[in-house]
Every structure is written in structure tokens, then in C-alpha cells.
Amino acid sequence: VKAYAEAGVNAFAMEFMPRITRAQVMDVLSSQANLAGYKAVVDAASEYGRAFPMMMTAAGTVPPARAFIMGVGVAGLQAIATAKRLGAIVSATDVRPAVKEQVQSLGGSFVAVENDEFRQAETAGGYAKEMSDDYKRQQAALVAEHIKKQDLVITTALIPGRKAPILVTAEHVASMKPGSVLIDLAVEQGGNVEGSKLGETVVTANGVKIVGHANYPSRIAESASLLYAKNLLALLTVLHDKDKGVTVNWDDEIVKAIALTRDGAVVHPAFA
Per the database record, which ranges form the Alanine dehydrogenase/pyridine nucleotide transhydrogenase NAD(H)-binding domain (predicted)? Predict the structure, then answer.
């Protein structure tokens, strides 16, 4: 960022797009996370050695897969919907109480320690807050019991500006059944799964796969490029005037939120 300023470049960061109605069409994090959630389930189905839906045949019954989605943002909601459409029994967890109804509306069950801290665990911007150590212990105990029964776990939990929280410990992984699959969508920010490795698929001693693909939207590149291009085109309507050409209104709330550098200075509070 400093190099941009020194070079006199006016730089903007799409990932800082504010969560306001006018900016929804420019929200690159949402457009890309939506694809990542879908692709994570498709990849999990490929890595998993059994069928997703229940199948009742003359030769016997194939039980449905159990999928557990950890983190119910845009990626998590799409993962729930996709896993449900493929026939899995889906459950999900998040520290934000508002998403419980969303999970249930998609046909999933909600798993969380629902105490007072949980009921207040959301920022005004709709993001997750950092939880206390005591809450984390209670939630970990609940997850430990739940995760033993799961075939597929997809983790999507991120905290803006912070390292991704560990949601699945080595002990959790060791308790899972052989052939189970974990997809860590937060691996680029440090990972939600203990033992996940960026760009690698790790197979544990008990036969559990931990998948840590980098840049998940690139795994469905044509769709990702299409949506990203539309995000950028929408942003140009803010930065361009049909009569004056490129005209940046530095007082616009969208411009204020995404501006990194201006006239040789770093202006974003995260870097200033």
C-alpha cells in the first residue's frame, strides 16, 4: 500500500466494499464467496467415497451423508443449499444468532451454545465478533460431540482483519470416521482446521481428508470472472461521469470505504 502511495497511484480495495444496499452489486466478497461455498460442496462430494443422498434399492439402502457447515456467511449459506440439494443431512453453526433462521429456512439444523454472549455476538455491520475464551470452550465441547457423527465438514469462518479462528482441532479430526472429508475455505487466512495446509490435501492417520485449496473461486474460474467483472463495472458507475469522464467523489461513502491511497498518501484507516 505504501508503494502505491509513493508512486502517486490512487488505489482502491474491492474487499473493503461497505455492506450497504447501494454497494451490493459491487460486493466482490459476496459474489466470490457464493461460488466458493458451492464449489466446496462439489469438491467434498468428489473427495468423499460414498453417495450424498439416501438411496433405497433392491440391493440395500445407502445412508445419506451428514454435512456440517461451520460459519454461515455467504459461502456457508450456499454450501448448506448445495449440500441439501445433493441429498445430505445438513447442520450448521455460527456465532451470530441472526443466521439461525436462515439455516433452518434452507433445511438445515442449527448447532450452537445459545447463551447471552451468543445473542449479542454480531457487529452493527453484520460481521461476527470475537468470542470469549469461555464461550469458545463451551462451543468446542458441543462441536466435539457433533463432529464425530459427520461425514463432511466445510469451514468458512473469517474475522475481518484477523487470523481465521481454529474451529476444528486435531482431536476433533481424530474422532471422525475414516473417509470423512474436511474442506477449509479459510486456509489462506491461517485456516479453521488444525492441520490444514495451503494448497494441499492432507490425509490423516485415521483416514480423514483435510482439503486446503488456495483461491477457491479460481476453481470455478469462468463464473468467478463473470461476477467479478460485473462487480467492477458497477464500481465504474461510481468513479465515472458520462460528461466529465473519470471523476472521483472522495466524499462518497463507497469511495471512502474502499480508498487505500490518494494523492501520494495512505488514507485507509487499516493502513494509515
Answer: 45-212
Count other Cβ atoms within 10 Å, centred on residue 90.
26
Better-predicted residue by pLDDT, 95 or 163: 163
Catalytic-residue membership of 24:
yes
Are 7 and 38 in a shared domain?
A: no
Within 10 Å of residue 53's Cβ, how many Cβ atoms? Answer: 13
Grid cell locating 118: 451468543
CATH number at residue 149: 3.40.50.720
What H or E segment, with its residue span, contains residue 60? strand 60-62
At 231, the amino acid letter reads N
pLDDT digits (tens, 9 = 90+) for 147-191: 999 999 999 998 776 899 899 999 999 999 999 999 999 999 999
Domain holding 69, by residue range, is: 33-52+59-220
Grid cell, residue 194, equals 488444525
Whether 132 is a known active-site residue: answer: no
Annotation marks residue 30 as catalytic: yes
Section 125-144 average pLDDT: 78
Is 241 considered catalytic here?
A: no
Q: Is residue 271 part of a domain?
A: no
Q: What's the predicted TM-score (pTM) here?
A: 0.86
* DSSP for 223-257, written as a single string: HHHHHHHHHHHHHHHHHEETTTEE---TTSHHHHH
Active-site hit among 4, 102, 109, 127: 127
Query: Of 262, 272, 230, 179, which Cα lies nearest the Cα of 8?
Result: 262
Claim to verify: residue 107 and residue 7 sit in the same structural domain: no
Digit-coded pLDDT (tens) for 180-229: 999 999 999 999 999 999 999 999 999 999 999 999 999 999 999 999 99
